[in-house]
Structures are given as structure tokens and as C-alpha cells.
Amino acid sequence: MERGVQGVTPQSEDFSSWYNELVIKAQLADRGPVRGTMVIRPYGYRMWELLQGQLDRRIKDTGHQNAYFPLLIPESHLEREAEHVEGFSPELAVVTYAGGKELEERVIVRPTSETVIGEMMAKWVSSHRDLPLLLNQWANVVRWELRPRIFLRTTEFLWQEGHTAHADEADAMRETMLALGMYSEVAREIAAMPVVEGEKTPGERFAGAVRTFSIEGMMRDGRALQAGTSHYLGTNFARAFGIRYTSEAERLELCHTTSWGMSTRMIGGVIMAHGDDKGLVLPPRLAPYQVVIVPIGRGEQLDTALRAARDLAERLRAAGIRVHADQRQHLSPGFKFNDWELRGVPLRLELGPRDLASGTAVLVSRLGGGKEQISLAGAPDALAGLLDDFQSALLDRATRFRDERTRVVDDWDQFAEAVRVGWALALHCGQASCEADIKASTGATPRIVPLSGAPATGPCVRCGNPSSYGRRVIFGRAY
Fold first, then answer.
1. CA gap 48, 214 in Å, rounded
2. What is the CATH number of the domain that holds 121?
3. How far apart are CA 276 and CA 398, in angstroms?
4. What are the beta bridge partners of residue 259?
5. pTM, rounded to two decimals
6. Is 243 in the same domain as 372?
7. Residue pLDDT, tens place only, 374-409
8. How many domains does the chain contain in total?
């Protein structure tokens, strides 16, 4: 198989191999010693920190408070909500032996925290004055994956999980949609990922939820990625854990609860939504380094270029730009150019003797377009504008790609062709047996019923029975 310029399998040859190789070569993460675990390297963890910071600010700005809950959950807690435990049972990691002896009650390593947080909510809520209770935690969770892939599906991963309790369905639904909106904003504005918001079909709902909503993004192989989910849990968990409050009318009522989460899976989404055969293409708002300066020269000329690169880096840093001056003297400029292309840095500045003499640097964008001169004196302001342009261009490019690969279909042959390369917008009966048949035939599943979809009715694209949702459903193969 022909290799890409960075020694990475081209996307067109094998997208899966391209992804797996790139994650390692770009120093984002590595495989952990236990099957399915990952070690997030500093470059990849910085991306997570930047995403985390943006989302955490939005969470706090909307009145939520961060807390932390235990990693270990008694098995009896999980069993209180039958549908929940049934949905997660194949993925559970269970502790049976600790402290030198077998445990009297088995302990679950948290796959999610609805149960342990529900237990605490029952203690903390007694009156309508205690509501709404708006909690969030940043944590790790464990789900025993059969087919792990770094960032996308790992046995242990990092995430945030919001958990809230409300007096009634209307307030809980407002919260559910608020969280979905936060995720959509972060995906679009920070990750430059043009996601679609929608509701999951009953067969795709979170275990124990009444309604599940998600944002879906299209990757560069046409597959869908569920990039964030928000669940209205009704009174299911409140009933199981006794989360009740005394209303203004002095009646004892069940709370309505929600949960919502976004994880390190988003890093995988950024890789697959924007990368190319040269490597990563990072949106500036998530790039560990937005600008890299490569000094060029030999002997005294290199020393001069190194000093100039350090000075320029300080000026850019003072202007709020994340910048790195590559001072590795044992590597050639060409190697460095390829290395930073592989790692997806949005803008590169080349600084050699002729450039310094003219008071300029050579500017190269990771999106292409050739080389151009940029004034060193005006670099901070110019680069800030160029980074904003890069962010917008990346979102526009991803949006065009998604739209070009999304087709409205009305018959089965059109459907099968559409999901082979992207998404199909099709009418669907909503029956689980029909969904299973579609998946068995094409590998595609109903991703969401888009919230913004136009009204549409007619026969199901597969079985011909009447459609159930009053609009078309997005189908696609998914990660």
C-alpha cells in the first residue's frame, strides 16, 4: 500500500488505518497496557484542556456547579433502575475482590453516574426551594469496549456529565435543550464541526431515558459521529432513588431529572472531520500551537534567526496567540515543515536571513494556498485575523463536505447508495425491527430525527409502512 508523505496510510486507501496511525504519529495518544485503554499525551491532552475550558465556562455561566462523585458504585444502586442496568450490563467492569478478601457486595466501576448522583440528590432535595439542582462533574468512566479505538471508543475515557433535578417536565426539558445547545455551540464555534441537532429514535435512546437528543457530525469518510448527548430522564431515576420534593401546595412530588455529556471522543471527531493525507488539520481554537516559527540558517545566521524567532514568539504570546518557536537544531527545516503539517498547526512562519533583512517572514497556512510574505512588525494583528479566517474556512469546508454527502432519498436503492458514502434523509416507520433490518443490510442506523427538519410524511424507505416522525430521519453508518 502506498504511504502518504508523512508515512501515514492515505485516507482513500484505508480511513481506519489513517486514523489509527495518525493518532500515534502526531503524538496525541498511545495505547495503554490494559486492552482498550489509552494514554493521552501532552499534545492531545492540551486539545482536551482547551475544549474543556470552553465547555466548562458555558456550563458555569448557565448556573451549574461542579462537584465530584465516587468512581465506585454499589451494584445494588445500579440495579434499582432496571432498564438502565440492562442497557449497561455488557459494558460493566465489576470489582469482586479487594482488601485481601472477596467483597460482600460487588462494586461497579462507574460507566456513568446517574445512580450514585441520584442517591445524593435524594438526600439533598426536600423542598421546591431546593430546585432546580444543577450539577456537573468532570471525571473518567469505564465501559468495557469490545472493539476499542483511541478517543472514539476506549475502555476508560474522560468526560463531563451534567446531572440536574427539576420540579416538572417543562423545566427539565428546557435544561435538556440548553445542554444540547451548549454542545452544538462548542462543536461549531470551537471544533469547527458543523453538527446537526436532533432526537434519537426509541431504539437509540440512552438506557433509562424518556427522550435522548444528540449532536451528530459527519467525518471525512462520510460516517457519523455522535459528539454529545442530552437526556430527559423523566421521573424514572427519581422514582428509583426517591428524589422527591414538597411542592408549594405541600404535596410530595417526584423530581424530573436530566443528564448530559461530552467526552474525549470529540478529539477523535476533530481528527476525522478535518484531517487529510498530510496529517491533522486543527481548528485554531483547539490547536495547542496556533502558530509555529521555524528559524532557518547556518552558523551565525541561524543564531540570529533563533533570537529573532524567540523575540517574535514573545510578541505573539503577549497578543494572546499560542505560539511555539521550533529551536531543534539537529533537524532540517524540511523535516520540521513536514512534522508540523502532520501535527496540524494552522499557521507556520519561516524565518531566514533574507526574511530578517527585509523585516518579513514567510507565512504558510495548513489549508494550503502557497507561501506569502508577512511583516514582522504587524505580525500579531495580522496573524490574529488570519487565525479567525482559518477557523471560519475550516467550518465552511466541513459544512460543504457534509452537505455534498447528504441526500434526500425516497427508495431503497437511493438509500443504500447514500449511506455508502454519507447520510440519507429518509422517511422511517420507527419500528425497531425495521431499524435492525436496515442495519443488517447496509450498516446504517437512524442517527437522529433533526430538530430543524421540514415536515414530511409518506411510506418508510425500507418496509413501506407509514412514517412515524412527521419528518425525515438522518441515517448513516456511525462510529
1. 20
2. 3.30.930.10
3. 12
4. 163, 231
5. 0.95
6. no
7. 999 999 999 999 999 999 999 999 999 999 999 999
8. 3
